[in-house]
Specification:
The complex is a heterodimer of chains A (139) and B (65).
Chain A: E1 2-4, H1 6-14, E2 27-29, H2 31-42, H3 47-53, H4 58-65, E3 73-74, H5 81-91, H6 96-107, E4 111-114, H7 122-130, E5 134-137
Parallel strand pairs in A: 1-2, 2-3, 4-5
Chain B: H1 5-19, H2 26-36, H3 41-53, H4 56-59
Classes of the chains: A mainly alpha (139), B mainly alpha (65).
């Protein structure tokens, strides 16, 4: 699987394939990152985001809420939890969001794919380097 | 050129993956572009950070410290 962040996941579901993203394996999002995306769908944060997200029609929202696995997998967190907890404990990695991403990246090709540099974060980048996980940013 | 069944199936799967969810319209795709690569990308990123920053189990922040 190719493990991506919320930015790339939304683009893939919407059919806006990011240049440079491999297309020879399934695309996957961790459960914690899907949780963040779902929170934004169900409760836009105000400002321009609210009006913009509310313009998505029911089928489009459904596609993001319940992605078809041929398009985007949401990774079952259970098999990753122990690895994520160990990463979090050893590196003080910063909670489930980062630790689960690192555990998923370690398991799946030792790679993580992001759609925005701001979404990587210093802590994730630092631990990824120590775990020999390559970070790709396609923005 | 002979294309094997395996190659044909894999190519069809790749095409479905790249096409995205068929329920998305051009208008919806344009909205997602604004959120992810357009004028709202920064705001979208900040709003995602707000969710994890407010949730100690996600962020690892301990507000009892």
């Amino acid at each position: 699987m190719i493990v991506v962040d919320e930015y790339l996941a939304a683009r893939v579901v919407a059919g806006d394939w990011p240049d440079g993203l491999p297309d020879d394996d399934d695309i996957a999002l961790t459960a914690a990152r899907h949780w963040r995306l779902l929170q934004r769908i169900h409760k836009p944060s105000g400002g321009q985001l609210t009006g913009t997200i509310e313009r998505l029609i029911q089928g489009e929202l459904h596609a993001l809420r319940f992605p078809h696995p041929e398009v985007l997998h949401v990774i079952d967190p259970r098999p990753l939890l122990d690895d994520a907890a160990e990463i979090n404990a050893r590196y003080n990695a910063g909670g489930l969001l980062i630790s689960e991403s690192l555990a998923a990246g370690l398991l799946h090709h030792r790679q993580l794919w992001f759609g925005s540099a701001r979404n990587v974060g210093l802590r994730l980048a630092s631990v990824a380097e120590d775990l020999a996980i390559t970070i790709h940013v396609l923005d | 050129m002979v294309v094997s069944i395996a190659d044909q199936l894999l190519e069809e799967r790749r095409a479905r993956r790249r096409a995205g969810d068929p329920r998305f319209t051009d208008e919806g795709r344009a909205i997602v572009r604004r959120l992810t690569t357009g004028d709202l990308a920064e705001e979208f990123g900040r709003s995602l950070d707000e969710i994890s920053d407010a949730d100690p189990s996600l962020s690892g922040h301990d507000y009892h410290d």
